[in-house]
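QA checklist item 7 of 12: single-chain prediction sanity check.
[x] sequence parsed
[x] length recorded as 571
[x] structure emitted
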Amino acid sequence: MAERSTAAVDVAGNSGDEPLTAKAELATADGVAKTGEQDTTGVDAEETGTKHESLKSTPPELHSGHKLAGRYRLEECVTRLDGFSSWRAVDEKLRRAVGVHLLPADHARARSVLAAARSSALLGDPRFVQVLDAVEENDLVYVVHEWLPDATELTALLAAGPLEVHDAYQMVHQVAQAMAAAHREGLAHLRLTPSAVLRTSSGQWRLRGLAVNAALRGIRSDTPQRTDTEAIGALLYASLTQRWPYEDDAYGLSGLPKGVGLIAPDQVRAGVHRGLSELAMRALVNDGATASRQEPPCTTPEDLVKAIGELPRIPPPEPAYTAPPEYQRTTYQQGSYARTTTGPMGASAVPPQPPAPLQGRTGKALKWAVSALLIAALGLGSWQLADALMERDNSSGTSNTDTTDTGKKSGEKKPAKPIAIQGAQEYYPDGKAQHAEDVGLTYDGNSSTYWRTFSFKGGPELAPFKKGVGIVYDLGSTRNVSAATIGLHYGGDHTTVSLYAADSLSSSAPIESMSRIAKATTTGQELKISADKPVKTRYVLVWLTAAPYASGDQYSGAGYKQAITDLKFTG
């Protein structure tokens, strides 16, 4: 992808509002690091090579409990910097937590913030924290965005130590793909710091502050793709080493030793994955090849995505072995007669002895009586059993062959058990989602609701227009998956679906990194897929590569399309 170096990128897109107007120059290798001061410090970035506009206003005097637009109630101020403030708030209308950026309407960057927020909202990519509202009202400009209470900042994750190699791989892959998609739409982030990267409880990585964070601070770059690529390289470097790749400390991480320069991650910390170490250097060092391998530098997120695709697949770590609980014997098994007891003052007391066996004529008589009773009971039981078998044979006319058949039936396989679905995420490695917000309708137990694709002009095979569309499902834990039953909204010629075992609930992991479980085709409205043998996995991708032709409806025009109404996995 060609780099637009002749002019600064307009992160406001085509909204008609003025672009970002700060004068940031981030061409140096340490430019990304030095724009990464903590939001709460209030440090002006001018001394580090990033210039801010002069401010005309002070932050508005707001407090907890203040309500915006009659619905957004401010709860807690999390940032107050450069004339704006950021809050955790509650949308009382929808009863959910949201985030709010606030600044005076006459602030020097108010127009740019509104333009950036509107452009970011138009992208609609679920890999980014979504902008929900952008309003100018009562001398205030405020931007409302999603608040993810179950997500954890990369800053907090790195405070505990470097990421596992598979987590670092997933992080850089998903972040690079998201930014590549954003740049294809003309949007840059320009402030990709560890606090802007979030990992959700499902393992997905999401980015917040696309265009908006830079607009709030007046940050601008003449080489936006290069700036974002270096920032991704810094994030990967920090994830591998728990060190910030520049001399200055930032985000709770120690910088590199003074005067040493930029050294590879595998020279900072032992055991670092060699391929990821070189990938970080290719993103950070943009004026030449890496020292160990003569690979070209990565100057755009698209370059980074291609470089990641060339790496060997990094599998998730094997689950740790947990020893079964120690077998506890009962008092009877331990043998109360074999235990010694401790008497007063710790002295060992003599264990109780079992009663002596009966002696003399009485004992012998009892033994003979018990023996006779046992023999009689056995004889009576045998006679009753034989009588019952004869009656059964006479009444039903069964034979030895029936007994053999019954034995065969008892050896048949047990019926497959349904597997509950714990979560789902639409899968779109090309960065273009279908209807990501509706994936939950595929397993809600209601056959009248469904997730649908767009209507395509070519078909039934979606390629080459689109490789496929699908959904990744989370089964909650590693399970044996042997089959799936998929309810389809449209019948006709024809629907083709494959099942893949995935490593995570990622919407963009390469399909080449997954293992195919099974594939099936149907012309009806129900598709059953069965594997040759069960496959152990937690995440399953349902990948649709062919769809039948259907007429237009209230949702879309005529074309090749499909919708999933009800899906069940069994194992």
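[x] summary fact logged: The first strand starts at residue 67 and ends at 68.
[ ] second reviewer sign-off
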